[in-house]
Structures are given as structure tokens and as C-alpha cells.
Amino acid sequence: MASPTKTIPDYLRGKYQLIYTVTFAAFFSIVFLLLSLPFSHNSWMALGNSKFFAFTVLFASGSLTLVALSRLLMYKTRNVLKMTYLGYSAWCVAEVVVICLAYSFITVPITEIGWDQFPKTLGNALLYGTISLIIPYILAGMYFALQDKNQIIRLMNYGNVVMDENMLPSKLEKITLFDNSGNLKLCVNSSNLYYLESDDNYIIVRYTDSRGDLKRYMIRCKMKTVEESFKGSDLVRCHRKYIVNMDKVKVLRKEKDGYELDLDNDTIPPIPVSKTYEENVLAIFNNAVLSRQSIQ
After folding, report:
1. 113-157, pLDDT tens digit by residue?
2. Least crowded by CB within 10 Å, which of 75, 104, 249, 286?
3. By CB neighbour count within 10 A (0-12 exposed, 13-18 middle, 19+ buried), where does 150 fall?
4. pLDDT at 225
5. How far is 53 from 281, CA to CA, in rounded Å?
């Protein structure tokens, strides 16, 4: 079980995951609303030709808009605001509380039940709100977690190699990359691979073909998954947007804003090294230099 203070995985705040979560929550809520309306107490919500039908549509639309804007804010702040499991849970609960408060403040004057019934109305609203929103959030999170784990397993399948000893990823000649559906998209010699760049839920692979021309290939896959799958190899995370093949690094240079990596292809601009990954990159680069010196 994950610690409440542990940072949530990137896939929970990805664009498409958030879109799917909002869509699934909306569908789940509508189905739950249709099933629960006949058993609701102090509810003014109704369908058909009821005079409250317009209010029902407006409230449902407003609630969905609130959730969508909340998730948009969650997505926009993903690179500047680290979110723990506790913070993510609090965010989800806050969405439910705001919607239920709005419902309760509308219900009392519309149904004329009196403000002394506000606590009871709010309690019922929180119960229904938890079922219609928190449950689909949990189900969506479990689905994406399972999908991410399956993706890691697929990416760790570097090839069918028969041998009498385990082979480290750094010794492999081929790098295989799969998309989110587990489909093999690219298999490239490690000696031809330069770096991978994150572009939201996609990665851009830069490599050279058999003629030595630099190519660009885009795969729908998460950077975190690739990073975890190729631990121990020459593919090293140096920035939130970049994984670089350290075997291709020609120069590590300290600049005003931090370190930069020059690769052995002059057409490729310098790759930045962020503070988060600086120590690891320096250690790997120094070890590589010492290994080359010992061989010489």
C-alpha cells in the first residue's frame, strides 16, 4: 500500500487519463442518478416534464463543469506542484464537498423544508456524492495503475535471448519500445539511439537509421514507464523531459543554468540536466570516464 506522503505517479495527472476519469465519472454519476432518484429524500431533481427538469440539467452541467475545471487545474500544475496521495485524495474530496454544499444550499429554499434540515440534507448529499464521484475516481485510478504495471512488464521484455546467465540491459544490442497498448512500435540498435523526449503522454525517439540520418519517431507511451524499464542500462533520465543514451555523450559541460550534455552528433542541440537528476548523471558520467581510462 502506498504511503499517503508519497508523490502520486505521473499517469494520474496525465491529460488523457484526466479526460477519461472525468468522462467515466460523468457516465457513472448519470447512471447512479437514474437508479437512485426514486429512492431519494428531499430531492428536487427530476426528469421528464417536471418543472425541476431544467434545474436538474443546469445543476448536473454545472457539477460536471466544476469537475472538468478542477481536473484541468490539476493537469496545468503538474510540473510545478508535486502532489502526494494524501493531497490527491483531499483534492477529490474537496470536489465532492463543494458540489454537495451547492446542492444543499439549493435544496433548502426550493423544497421549502426549512434550514433546520440543512445538516441532514448535506449528509445525504455527501453520501450520494461519494458514491457517484469517489467510487469512479477509485476505479479509474485502479485501471490506470494496472495499465501502467502491464506496460512496465511489456517494456521489460527486451527480447527472446537464450543463455546460461542473466544479461544486463546495458549489454543488450536492441532497445524495444512499446506503446500504451503493449504494441511493439520501435526496435533500434542501442548504438543508434541518442535520446528520448517527453511530449505529454507521448515520447519522441531520436535515432539514426542505417544511412546515418537522424530520425524522429513518436510513440504514445509514458516517460516514467520507459525510465523504470531501462534501469541499469545506458539510458539515463537527465531531465523531466529527457532520457539520454549516456554512451552517446561526448561532453558534459557546466553552464550558468546548470549542466548540459553534448552528444556525438552535431545536429542535436545540447541536452539539459536538471538539478533533480544532476547527481546521478555526474556519477554515471564519471564512472564511464574512469572505465575508459582503465581500459586504455
Report:
1. 888 888 988 888 898 888 889 999 999 888 888 776 665 555 554
2. 286
3. middle
4. 79
5. 61
Three-state secondary structure string covering the chain? CCCCCCECCHHHHCHHHHHHHHHHHHHHHHHHHHHHHHHCCCCCCCCCCCCCHHHHHHHHHHHHHHHHHHHHHHHHCCCCCCCEHHHHHHHHHHHHHHHHHHHHHHHHHHHCCCHHHHHHHHHHHHHHHHHHHHHHHHHHHHHHHHHHHHHHHHHCCCCCCCCCCCCCHHHCCEEEEECCCCCEEEEEECCCEEEEEEECCEEEEEEECCCCCEEEEEEECCHHHHHHHCCCCCEEEEECCEEEEHHHEEEEEEECCEEEEEECCCCCCCEECCHHHHHHHHHHHHHHHHHHHHHC
Decide if 104 contacts 121 (C-beta within 8 A): yes
Residue-wise pLDDT for 24-69, tens only, equals: 888 888 888 777 766 665 555 555 556 666 677 788 888 889 999 9
Answer whether residue 215 shows pLDDT above 60: yes
pLDDT given at position 168: 47
Angle at 27 between CA 103 and CA 42, to 5 degrees: 30
User: Cβ-count burial of 103 within 10 angstroms (0-12 exposed, 13-18 middle, 19+ buried)?
Assistant: buried
